[in-house]
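Hypothesis: this fold can be encoded by more than one sequence.
Test: take the structure tokens below, design a sequence, compare later.
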């Protein structure tokens, strides 16, 4: 649950996936579909960190699938 890590200000890709309870592949798919749909945006993903608010949105989107 995100509340237990509220003091953390950013998450790596693997930490974010773990927090959401999804695999890295599923997490990347969520990001490609909802956050970085263009080729240009996808090139920035490997160096991206995620804020707790990003995880809230991604959790909602993961539950809609």
């Amino acid at each position: 649950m995100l509340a237990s890590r509220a003091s953390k200000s950013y998450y790596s890709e693997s930490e974010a996936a773990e927090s959401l309870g999804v695999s890295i592949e599923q997490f990347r798919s969520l990001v490609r579909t909802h956050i970085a749909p263009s080729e240009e945006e996808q090139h920035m993903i490997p160096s991206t960190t995620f804020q707790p608010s990003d995880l809230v949105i991604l959790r909602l989107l993961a539950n809609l699938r």
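Residues 35 and 41 are 8 Å apart (CA to CA). The chain is about 55% helix and 0% strand.
Hypothesis status: open.
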